[in-house]
Design goal:
The complex is a heterodimer of chains A (252) and B (602). Chain A is an alpha+beta fold and 252 residues long. Chain A has two domains: 2-103, Roll (Ubiquitin-like (UB roll)), CATH 3.10.20.30; 106-247, Fumarate Reductase Iron-sulfur Protein, Chain B, domain 2 (Orthogonal Bundle), CATH 1.10.1060. Chain A is 35% helix and 14% strand. Chain A contains ten helices and seven strands. In chain A, the strands form two sheets. In chain A, strands 2-1-5-3-4 form a five-stranded mixed β-sheet. In chain A, strands 6-7 form a two-stranded antiparallel sheet. In chain A, β3 (63-66) and β4 form a beta hairpin. In chain A, α6 crosses α9. Chain B is α/β, with parallel strands linked by helices and 602 residues long. Chain B has a domain at 234-378: Succinate dehydrogenase/fumarate reductase flavoprotein, catalytic domain (Flavocytochrome C3, Chain A, domain 1), CATH 3.90.700. Chain B is 36% helix and 17% strand. Chain B contains 16 helices and 21 strands. In chain B, strands 1, 2, 6, 7, 8, 9 and 16 form a seven-stranded mixed β-sheet that branches. In chain B, strands 17-15-10-20-21 form a five-stranded mixed β-sheet, covered by helices on one side. The longest helix of chain B is centred in the C-terminal third of the chain and has 25 residues, at 521-545. Chain B starts with 5 loop residues before the first strand and ends with a helix. The chains are: A alpha+beta (252), B alpha/beta (602). At the A-B interface, α1, α2 and α3 of A face α3, α4, α10 and α15 of B.
Amino acid sequence: MAATEFRIWRQDGAEGEGGYRDYTTDVTEGMVVLDAVHQIQAESANDLAVRWNCKAGKCGSCSAEVNGNPRLMCMTRMSDLPADRPVTVEPMRAFPVIRDLVCDVSWNYEVKKKIEPFEPRPPDAEDGTWRIAQEDVERVQEFRKCIECFLCQDVCHVLRDHHLHDEFVGPRFFVYNAALEMHPLDTRDRLASLKQDEGIGYCNITKCCTKVCPEHITITDNAIIPLKERVVSEFYDPLKRLFRVFSGGSRA
Amino acid sequence: MDQTPYEYDVLVVGAGGAGLRAAIEASAAGASCGVICKSLLGKAHTVMAEGGMAAAIGNVDERDDWKVHVTDTLRGGQYLSNPKMAEIHAKEAPERALELEAWGALFDRTKDGRILQRNFGGHRYPRLAHVGDRTGLEMIRTLQDHGIHRGIDFHMEYTVFRLLLDDGRVAGALAYDRERGRFRVYRAKAVVLATGGIGRAFKITSNSWEYTGDGHTLAYDAGADLIDMEFVQFHPTGMVWPPSVRGILVTEGVRGEGGVLLNSDGERFMFDDIPPLYKDQTADSAEEGWRYVVGDRDARRPPELLTRDHVARCIVDQIKAGKGSPHGGVYLDIAWIKEKISNSEDHIRKKLPSMYHQFKELAGLDITKERMEVGPTTHYVMGGVRVDAESQMSSVPGLYAAGECAAGLHGANRLGGNSLSDLLVFGKRAGEYAAAFAREQGDIRLDQAAVEAGMKEALEPLEREGGEGPYQIQHELQDLMQEKVGIVRIESELEEAIEEIGRLSDRAKAVSAPGNREYNPGWHTALDLHPLLVVSEAVARAGLLRRESRGAQFRDDYPQKDERFGKVIIRAAKGADGEMVVEEMPVEPMSDELTRLVEEMG
């Protein structure tokens, strides 16, 4: 057992002035950052706000910045952090703070509503079921693993630094689009909205999102780049452009 | 304060599988529908379900059908289930699974492209539709993404703490906004409770903070009955090391894929104690057990796949006999399958990806190479609101319950995989019947005095100065329930527990939770004490009254089954004086057809 120092962001409501406050608590073997925060909450800061649920990396609720790195607190082991300086814990910085470590992520839920929902092809068999190859299931599993922790959104420059929330949906929703577009049964086409409404062109593939994903989804290479390529071939292919001019349609 | 009520035909409390499915159905029936949830959408406990959803589709073994499923469920529940519910569940689960696929869920496939099904404890044939070991995530995300396009209003991070009644029928609910601390009044013609379980009443649990028995208590306070509360499922395999992860679930899927339980001498102890009810269905040898795992249809299932109540008790016996692992568990070994298959490490990572990561990241252990240490963890409550089998309505008109907070399907013990299907089958039914009920109702009146009183009471912990903090009481309750109302129970300890719960209830009425109203976890914890104490009392009192050992209840002083108690369930309700009354009531009778089926299937 070792007394460990923490610097935790405290803020009284969205309009309040925030700042770090120092706490000390005993860290025992195997503890994760969320355990330490809870211990501090029980010992010396009963009103310290923190959002969490499963404590097993499955629900994506306890996103925060630990020593400046976007992390799930429940999956960050104390033993992996440097012991010679205080552990800094602060809320995700790309979203408004509600209180302390809790921020308002409702924008993400609004964005999702605007994305074209899933629509399957007609069933393959008379009993109303489909036949799908296991390889096709596995191909999109990577995107379906997403736990919606929004750490990728937190770290994305387009949102964090340029605040283009109205024009750009962020890595989470490119992963969501990829999951739908590559779903073996889906019939809809989301390329026009990816280009026009969701701003996929703003992503300059710095791969920050991929680095922080706790589910190890290769967001940039496997979701965003293939979607960008499809958008390019759909809208910037010279033959298709020519065809669009003559057919008068907005889409080929 | 703005108290203009939000108005809905159907108000759903809870946004896990049952709540979302109910809301989708109510909305499809033309009802206006609001969903209130304590967390953000998609974070409810369903997200953690790992193994799969039991549905007798018969894709892997065509001998499976609803008849086998219903008899498996009834046997697993030690014949205390509501047979009608078990029948509806077995008949409708396949349709609910297929419907999920039409909404975008992707399950693992058989070679010919149909939904693959996996083995699980107590199920005679491979029956669980699954996606690796993250089936719950697939299910909740599918329902969530389908639901957001159905015109349903979602109220995220609100806690309902009081139901409002109008002349005995339900009229709405009172909630507080967790983020900002404001109250909100809801007027609704029907309310569906889908709040999940009570695991936070115990110290070691796989359940999140949300599982404080809210729906159970809202219904109880409104005058509905709770039944089967003595039956709390202790899942045999939770993590035991390091201490901070103690209780986190290790899916039964590990055993479904061939994982074996070993004691400190390396003995596979599950072969030593096979209950008579399952003798004919259980493998005689390790060799036969492995053949079952790899799909030999003539082989019987390995003893690790006996029902959860039994496996949990066998583990406790090993630990008590001094044959446990260093940190007070036993060993669960999946790495051993390398003796049987050449690419075992890849196979394990593919079949059990989240278990692989969970142990790698939280315990620094590679399950493809090393044995895990596991022990029982509080996982699920079979008990809940007594509901009508068809409609899911409680004894309070307009008040419905579905999923874990309802009771009847699982009897004395739930089979793994029967929960996800329960959520969908009865969530759908609750939504459908609630919408129909709402259509028939005229205007309902909100009792303004009850609204004012409810809000005033909820603010007391914030305003009270100098009282005890809520965390201390919560921790004492969890320790008490773990020690005295846990896996092994005895009369004297249950009596002590009931007395102590009474004392804790008195202390809970005088707690202080200073701070302001915005996202104040101390205040939230103070308000959670009432439901936690109500469900704890119900578990202890029902456990005391059932003087026998059956399913999840093990009484050290009555270690055998008692035929008399095989015919009754235990009901807890609020008496006229406000005290809890527990009494026996007869088990719902079985239809002739089901009786015949049970006899035929053995």
